[in-house]
Structures are given as structure tokens and as C-alpha cells.
Amino acid sequence: MERVEPIRSVKKINDLKKYLLGSGNMRNYTLVVLGLNSALRVSDILNLKWGDVFDFEENRFKTHVYVKEKKTGKNKKFLLNQNATGAILKLKRKLGHINILDYIFKSREGQNKPITRYMAIKIIKSSCEAVGIKEHIGCHSLRKTFGYHSWKKGVPIPILMELYNHSNQSITKLYLGISQDDIDDVYRLIEL
């Protein structure tokens, strides 16, 4: 598997979201926004059903989502932040009727099947290209982008390690995609 990079520019992230929102395809917009705000692997995002994020009895979004990670088998709990909830709400409004067992990112092929990983990567890559994101982008870029921007805002690596369910810090450090520019920023910041 090729190594992919996070999207380091907040402006480019905002351009990407505006582009997807402007396209009118709420499924694709929600896929990217949820990916950027959940730190989930794309395989776990694609397996989400409406019952995972929406409480049908209370008629409201859940505050936390529980998933069993497909790759590791570990349980993960994450907060649906305002951006993620807002994107899912836009999709819900666009769809109208949803069912507790429906996949959120439903494919147009077949009855109730999620889009494929291949389709997700196609959506992510083509959208990034459309807004001029030059980094080597893949599905994991969304997950890495979350970590990179968390780290830039001062979230300690041990917290990110726990968030990602990583067994050691070296894996988490790889996820952060620290560049020479980031290292140079430290030298600019610390002038003793």
C-alpha cells in the first residue's frame, strides 16, 4: 500500500468542503466531512448505518458513535462533533426517509449496500484534485488529516495514540505526516 499524506492546509480543507457542498452530492460531502472529523478508517465509515448515528426513538442524533473496528476488532467510541453532525443532517434532509438499518453511504447498486472502498477513494481523489490539493491523497488521508491538525493544535501524541487505537507511538508519529516545514516552524517558534 502506498503512503498517503494528510491535507495540511486548512484553506484547502475548506475549499474541498465548499466544492463538495456546491456539487449537490450530499453523500460525497458527508463522506469527506465525517472522514475528516471522526479519524475512522474508510472501511469503518462505509459500514456505518443510520442507527449508529441517529436515535430513532428520541428523533435526534447521538452524541457518541460506537464501532468495532474492522481492521483491529477493537471497540471505538467517538464524539460526533458539530461539523460531522451538520454534514450528516444535510444528508438526512436530502434523503428524506431513512431506515435504522440503511447504510449512510448507500451505493446506487443493489438494495442496501454501502459504496465500495474503490468508489470512496475515487470520490476523495477526484474532489481533492478539483480543488488543487497536490499531496499524495488516499482514503487514509482523511484519518491522517484529523491527526495532523489535532497535533498542530497541541493535542499530545499519547492522546492521539489512544484515539487511533495504536499500540505504539511510532505508528502515530507516522500518521501525523510531520514535514520539514513543521520542523522549521519549531525553530522559528523557539528562538532563545
UniProtKB/TrEMBL annotation:
Residues 3-188 form the Tyr recombinase domain. The keyword Amino-acid biosynthesis does not apply. The keyword Disulfide bond does not apply. Keywords: DNA recombination. GO terms for biological process: DNA integration; DNA recombination. Pfam families: Phage_integrase. One of its GO terms (molecular function) is DNA binding. PANTHER family: INTEGRASE_RECOMBINASE YOEC-RELATED (PTHR30349:SF82), PHAGE INTEGRASE-RELATED (PTHR30349). This is Tyr recombinase domain-containing protein.
